[in-house]
Amino acid sequence: MADLYQASRSGPFILAGPCAIESREIVLQTAGTLAELAAKLDIPLVFKSSFDKANRTSVTSFRGPGMEKGLEILAEVKRTTGLPVVTDIHHPEQAAPVGEVADVLQIPAFLCRQTDLLVAAAKTGRVINIKKGQFLAPWDMKNAVEKVRASGNEQVWLTERGSTYGYNNLVVDMRSIPQMQGFDVPVVMDATHSVQLPGGLGGMSDGQREYVPVLASAAVAAGVNGVFMEVHPDPDKALCDGPNSLPLDKVEPLLIRLKALWELNRA
């Protein structure tokens, strides 16, 4: 995993995939398309999907297949596509078994201050992607980074995903990118969760996926290291985060645009 982390420090990368693992077929279809695009455009890509989305708006919302089945599917993604994978953990005891499969362990935004979770994740030796809590200032994330480093793991990413002021909306402050890069970590822009309208549909969240390219492009122009995006073959039928997910057939033009912006920045 040191190779993956070092690559993320020196060049742009993408994290992409469906919000939750809905089925083996959807995951493999999406992963296969993303792997082809990553190879075609020469952009490092980590496949993302979650075996459990524990922070859904409603108790009746779809969460995923669970850890055992979910890890089987993610392992198949790695075997068939060669892509590294990232998935969320919510409890310290999940860290070790998930770390046997996932190349990157993701800490959800609402759990970014959970010391036991961060320590357990760090001890796997995997890359740790910590999403900035919607309730935290970017400079507050230094403490989360230090918890991982104090546990013997220097491989940390921080992800910006907007700040909440209530009223079913999120606001992104691009100043957070250089502020969090100041902790000597790569920073990722979550361009899809940042257009989410939390609880906007009452029993579920709404979203404004038409603004995903805007935020992704603005973040790359601001110097972000990586971009996170939830993508789905048919977002309108997705069981999780459909309103803020990017259609799979819209990914290639956006990646072409982002790569051009990254290259312009590098020049």
Secondary-structure topology with pairs:
Blueprint: H1 2-10, E1 13-17, H2 24-41, E2 45-48, H3 67-81, E3 85-88, H4 95-99, E4 104-107, H5 115-122, E5 127-131, H6 141-150, E6 156-160, E7 163-164, E8 170-171, H7 176-181, E9 187-190, E10 196-197, E11 206-207, H8 212-221, E12 226-232, E13 246-247, H9 251-266
Parallel strand pairs: 1-2, 1-12, 2-3, 3-4, 4-5, 5-6, 6-9, 9-12, 12-13
Antiparallel strand pairs: 7-8, 10-11
Description:
This protein has about 270 residues and is an alpha/beta fold. It contains 9 helices and 13 strands. The chain has helices at about 1-10, 25-40, 65-80, 95-100, 115-120, 140-150, 175-180, 210-220, 250-265, and strands at about 15, 45-50, 85-90, 105, 125-130, 155-160, 165, 170, 185-190, 195, 205, 225-230, 245. The chain has an 8-stranded parallel β-barrel with strand order 1-2-3-4-5-6-9-12, surrounded by 6 helices. α4 links the parallel β3 and β4. α2 (about 25-40) runs parallel beside α3 (about 65-80), α5 packs across α6 (about 140-150) and α8 (about 210-220) runs parallel beside α9. The radius of gyration is 17 Å and the shape is globular. The mean pLDDT is about 95.
Poorly predicted sequence stretches spanning 5 or more consecutive residues = none
Radius of gyration: 17 Å
Q: How does the major sheet shape up? A: 8 strands, parallel, barrel
Query: Based on helices, strands and strand pairing, what is the structural class?
Result: alpha/beta
Mean pLDDT: 94
Instruction: Report strand order across the widest sheet.
Output: 1-2-3-4-5-6-9-12
Oligomeric state as shown: single chain
Identify the overall geometry: globular
Report the total helices.
9
- State the helical fraction: 25-40%
- Strand and helix order: HEHEHEHEHEHEEEHEEEHEEH
Kindly report how far apart the N and C termini lie.
Answer: 28 Å
Strand residues, percent: 15-25%
Count every beta strand, where a strand is a DSSP E run of 2 or more residues. Answer: 13
